[in-house]
C-alpha cells in the first residue's frame, strides 16, 4: 500500500512540474499582444522571469532530494558534441519524413515559438535569451534530473531514457507522430547524455546549444 501511495505521490509531483513549465510561455504570449514596450509588457516579462526562477529553484531542490546517482562534476565536450551531431542527423531524417508524409516544413512547436519572436522587441530579446539559458536549465532539471530519478531503480538505464523522451515530447506541441518522435528523440538523447556522464550540466549545455542554433535560425528567417 505504501508503494502505491509513493508512486501516486511521485506521479503527482511530476504532473505539477509538467504543468508549471507550461506557464512562463503564457505570460510571454500575453505580453506579445502589443508591439510596444509598455508597463504591462514589462510586468509580464518580469512575471515570466519570476516563474522561471521559481521553477528552477524548486526543480533543483527536488532533483537533489531524489537523486539516485553520484554527482560527477565533469563537463564532457566530446559527449556533448557527439550528442549534438546525433540530434542533427535525427532532425534531418525526421524533418524529411515530416515533409514527405505531412507536408510540414516546421513543427507546430517551432511555429508557436516563431509567433512569439519578432513582434515585441522586449519580448523577443528576453524570450530568445531565456530559450538558450533558462529553458535548458529548467527542462533538464525537470525532465532529466527529477523525472529520471523518480521512477525505476537506480541502476536502470534505457527505461529511464525512454520515459524521459516520451514525457519531454508530450510537453511540446506536436500535430503528428513524426514531430512527436522528433522531440522524443531529442529528449532521449539529452537523457542519454545525462545518464552517461552522470553530470546534468552536460545535458543542459547540449540543450542550450541546440536551442541557440534553433533560435538563431528562427531570427534569421524573421528579419531577412
Question: Care to describe what's here?
Answer:
This protein has 224 residues and is mostly helical. It has helices spanning 2-20, 23-31, 39-66, 77-102, 108-116, 121-132, 134-150, 158-170, 177-197, 200-223. The protein is globular, with a radius of gyration of 18 Å.
Record the SSE blueprint:
Elements: H1 2-20, H2 23-31, H3 39-66, H4 77-102, H5 108-116, H6 121-132, H7 134-150, H8 158-170, H9 177-197, H10 200-223
Shape, principal axes of CA atoms:
globular
pLDDT below 50 for ≥5 consecutive residues: which ranges?
Answer: none
Oligomer description:
single chain
**Order of helical and strand elements:** HHHHHHHHHH
Helix-strand category: mainly alpha
Q: Roughly what fraction of the amino acids lie in strands? A: under 5%
Give a concise summary.
The protein is mainly alpha-helical and 224 residues long. 79% of the residues lie in helices and 0% in strands.
Notable traits:
globular, single chain, 79% helix, 224 residues, mainly alpha
Amino acid at each position: 500500500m505504501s508503494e502505491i501511495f509513493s508512486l501516486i505521490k511521485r506521479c503527482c509531483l511530476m504532473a505539477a512540474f509538467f504543468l508549471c513549465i507550461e506557464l512562463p510561455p503564457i505570460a510571454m504570449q500575453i505580453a506579445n499582444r502589443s508591439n510596444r514596450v509598455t508597463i504591462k509588457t514589462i510586468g509580464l516579462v518580469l512575471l515570466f522571469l519570476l516563474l522561471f526562477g521559481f521553477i528552477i529553484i524548486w526543480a533543483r531542490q527536488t532533483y537533489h532530494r531524489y537523486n539516485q546517482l553520484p554527482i560527477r562534476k565533469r563537463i564532457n565536450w566530446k559527449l556533448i558534441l557527439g550528442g549534438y551531431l546525433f540530434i542533427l542527423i535525427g532532425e534531418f531524417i525526421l524533418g524529411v519524413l515530416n515533409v514527405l508524409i505531412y507536408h510540414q516544413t516546421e513543427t507546430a512547436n517551432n511555429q508557436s515559438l516563431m509567433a512569439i519572436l519578432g513582434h515585441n522587441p522586449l519580448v523577443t530579446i528576453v524570450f530568445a535569451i531565456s530559450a538558450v539559458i533558462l529553458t535548458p536549465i529548467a527542462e533538464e532539471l525537470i525532465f532529466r534530473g527529477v523525472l529520471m530519478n523518480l521512477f525505476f531503480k537506480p541502476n536502470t538505464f534505457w527505461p529511464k531514457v525512454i520515459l524521459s523522451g516520451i514525457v519531454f515530447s508530450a510537453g511540446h506541441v506536436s500535430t503528428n507522430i513524426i514531430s512527436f518522435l522528433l522531440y522524443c528523440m531529442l529528449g532521449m538523447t539529452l537523457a542519454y547524455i545525462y545518464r552517461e556522464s552522470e553530470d546534468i550540466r552536460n545535458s543542459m549545455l547540449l540543450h542550450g546549444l541546440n536551442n541557440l542554433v534553433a533560435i538563431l535560425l528562427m531570427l534569421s528567417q524573421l528579419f531577412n
